[in-house]
Amino acid sequence: MVKNEQAYLDLCQTILDQGQVKSDRTGTGTHSIFGAQMRFNLADGFPLLTTKRVNFRLIASELIWFIRGETNIQFLLKHNNNIWNEWAFKRWVESTDYQGPDMTDFGNRSLVDSSFREQYQQEMASFKERVLTDDGFAQQYGELGPVYGKQWRAWQTSQGETIDQLKDVIDSLKHNPDSRRHIISAWNPEDVPSNMALPPCHALFQFYVADGKLSCQLYQRSADVFLGVPFNIASYALLTHLVAHEVGLAVGEFIHTLGDAHIYQNHTEQITTQLSRTPFAQPQLQISGGAKSIFELEVSDLEIVNYQSHAAIKAPIAV
Questions:
Q1: DSSP state of 154
Q2: Which of 47, 82, 103, 210 is the most buried (most CB within 10 A)?
Q3: For the CA atoms of the chain, what is the radius of gyration?
Q4: Where in the numbering of this chain does the Thymidylate synthase/dCMP hydroxymethylase domain appear (predicted)?
């Protein structure tokens, strides 16, 4: 069914038609609305967009990275996942240890200056190689600070204690499914101002059990609708499947609630192209880990089948 995807396409059109033009932290500029919601019935299929190709392996490896409590891009690079590179690279090139060419505003400059783009690509390739091969360098410059995995699995209290939010919620779902406290927060006000490479965009989520089905609602404070949101939809749909599998429930809905939902001004052409396409049927998720715990799953245990899509659409990332 294409109903799931239509919710996303309708949101894109609404932002284009009604969005306010706003400045933003990155200096790129956006079309933005405040407050939106999409609902995805996971029984209708896995909500991986079909109007542009979305790489499920990147989504799966990032989610497993979160679930394991990882915060260093070395794990991601070992799985050929580059989606967090720019934030770690920014920390490296702004450090006093970096002695290479000026990389100020590398994201935007690489789009308009071909000679700089080649220089940037060389520096990024060198950075990635060092993170993969030099554990000391990776520990210092591959580290993103207390981002999602840290908050999910090892939230630090003011008393110096550690809370494993994900484990606690899974235990609660098993023993008290009707609780209204199945909540995990990535937004830690103490860590946001200085320690995180990027403050959490998907800030809080809650599970809900009814009729033997597990549903999940995410509150996302800031939503890059073209590049980020397709990943967020698939990631939290996957998380809902994995937690449901862990606690012995069927899947219900994924409900995606957005605060600042925006399309960057340099993404409008890409969004328009995507909106001109007709969606295909939703694919299906297969979990082959058997009796494995959610905390033991590998990327190879997760597979999307019957995925038909239009071609990928590239766009610059705002850092």
A1: -
A2: 47
A3: 20
A4: 6-319
Is residue 110 a known part of a binding site?
no
- How far is residue 24 CA from its own chain's centroid? 20
Query: Does the annotation list 221 as a binding residue?
Result: yes
pLDDT in tens, 36-87: 999 999 999 999 999 999 999 999 999 999 999 999 999 999 999 999 999 9
Q: Annotated active-site positions, please?
A: 201
**Model confidence, pTM:** 0.92
Please give the Cα distance from 312 to 319 (Å, whole number): 21
Rounded to 10 degrees, the C-alpha dihedral 144/146/147/149 comes to: 110
7 is in an annotated binding site: no
Burial of 211 per CB tally in 10 Å (0-12, 13-18, 19+): exposed
Burial category of 92 from C-beta neighbours within 10 Å (exposed 0-12, middle 13-18, buried 19 and up): buried
pLDDT band at residue 300, thresholds of 50, 70 and 90?
A: very high
